């Protein structure tokens, strides 16, 4: 049975005094991960907002051991930790439950700079949970475009709006034939929590990507973070699903969208509350741009329906 919000453990691993922006989605998502994994866990991070705001000694505000590594080793550092633990347990030098090893890495570190080592770890089916928090930009260094930035979104390197579509990283990871993969949203925290617990209890390589609307980079009031998280799902801009041994199951509103039981909410509403899409409003061909973005979403939905039935 799905967990209710009242059932979530009270444990907090994100401590007070951290330097994250108010309404930071990564920080909230980390709190939920801490509840799912419990105290016996080890985390690997690459340079990112989370490292800068929570992970740096002497101001580290996360109650886990954190290994802060360079981007290119995003996937391989966690593999090394797992192999070391497995060897120590085998030799009897460690006993008890092995800690949950997980990564907490941004979209820049996942989609772009760390991709090679992540792909290799997935292909080896290394026993850890790769978590990507996707704020659709290189936020920490001033909001540059990444492979996860959607078309038309303005960043500091695409001031007129990005001209290319984003990569479909979850599908790319699914094609590594890993035992568990999930997408998640902070508007559906118990769905996210259940997916984290499932990943913890699955052996092999697990990939979870949580959608993380960044108020600073996307230019909206911090109090709107959950509302925007929800609109991304209801408009079809972010699809919620999981795949156990490659079998896709849609979750929450995405399941209803796939079954044709609910209409997509207006994409215009999702765009209009974010400053990064402001140039769409100013464009002479505004209708054309919105129609193109909607058609892309519809095409992705049709593709995923067929992919899930396959
Ligand atoms: C190899 C390398 N290139 C660039 C940087 C500079 N850098 C530090 S954090 C960062 C942004 C990371 O973006 P993302 O992984 O999406 O995390 P976010 O900042 O959005 O939380 C960059 C480019 C670096 N540290 N190392
Ligand atoms: Mg990012």
Task: Give a written overview of the molecule.
The protein has helices at residues 25-37, 49-55, 76-90, 107-113, 115-123, 169-174, 189-200, 215-218, 225-234, 252-258, 267-272, 278-282, 286-309; strands at residues 41-45, 66-68, 100-106, 129-134, 180-185, 206-211, 241-244, 247-250. With 310 residues, it is an alpha/beta fold. It has a single domain, classed as Rossmann fold, CATH 3.40.50.970. An eight-stranded mixed sheet has the order 2-1-3-4-6-5-7-8, with helices on both faces. Helix 7 (189-200) links the parallel strand 5 and strand 6. Helix 1 packs across helix 7. The structure holds thiamine diphosphate (TPP) and magnesium ion. The site of magnesium ion has 8 residues, from helix 4. Magnesium ion is lined by residues 106-108, 135, 137-139, 146.
Q: Main traits of this protein?
A:
binds thiamine diphosphate; 310 residues; alpha/beta; eight-stranded mixed β-sheet
> Quick one: biggest sheet?
8 strands, mixed
Structural class estimated from helices and strands: alpha/beta
Work out the strand percent: 5-15%
Contiguous low-pLDDT stretches (5 residues minimum) are none
- What is Rg? 19 Å
| Overall CATH class | Alpha Beta
Bound molecules: thiamine diphosphate, magnesium ion
* Helix count, DSSP H or I runs of 4 or more residues: 13
| Count of extended strands | 8
In angstroms, what separates the terminal alpha carbons?
27 Å
CATH topology: Rossmann fold
Biggest sheet strand order reads: 2-1-3-4-6-5-7-8
């Amino acid at each position: 049975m799905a967990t209710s919000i009242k059932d979530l453990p009270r444990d907090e691993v994100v401590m007070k005094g951290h330097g994250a922006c108010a309404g930071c989605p990564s920080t909230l998502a980390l709190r939920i991960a801490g509840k799912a994994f419990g105290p016996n866990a080890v985390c690997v991070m690459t340079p990112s907002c989370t490292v800068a705001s929570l992970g740096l000694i002497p101001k580290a505000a996360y109650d886990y051991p954190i290994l802060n590594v360079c981007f290119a080793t995003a996937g391989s550092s966690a593999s090394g930790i797992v192999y070391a633990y497995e060897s120590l347990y085998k030799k009897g030098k460690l006993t008890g439950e092995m800690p949950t090893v997980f990564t907490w890495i941004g979209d820049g570190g996942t989609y772009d700079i760390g991709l090679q080592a992540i792909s290799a770890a997935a292909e080896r089916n290394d026993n850890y949970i790769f978590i990507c928090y996707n704020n659709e930009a290189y936020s920490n260094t001033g909001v540059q475009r990444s492979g996860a930035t959607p078309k038309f979104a303005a960043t500091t390197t695409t001031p007129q709006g990005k001209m290319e579509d984003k990569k479909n990283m979850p599908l790319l990871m699914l094609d590594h034939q890993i035992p568990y993969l999930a997408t998640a949203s902070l508007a559906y925290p118990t769905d996210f929590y259940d997916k984290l617990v499932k990943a913890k209890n699955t052996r092999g390589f697990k990939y979870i990507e949580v959608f993380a609307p960044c108020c600073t980079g996307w230019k909206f009031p911090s109090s709107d973070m959950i509302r925007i998280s929800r609109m991304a799902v209801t408009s079809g801009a972010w699809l919620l699903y999981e795949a156990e041994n490659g079998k896709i199951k849609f979750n929450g509103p995405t399941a209803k969208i796939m079954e044709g039981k609910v209409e997509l909410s207006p994409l215009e509403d999702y765009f209009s509350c974010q400053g990064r899409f402001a140039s769409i409003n100013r464009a002479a061909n505004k209708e054309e741009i919105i129609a193109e973005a909607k058609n892309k979403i519809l095409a992705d939905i049709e593709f995923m329906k067929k992919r899930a039935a396959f």
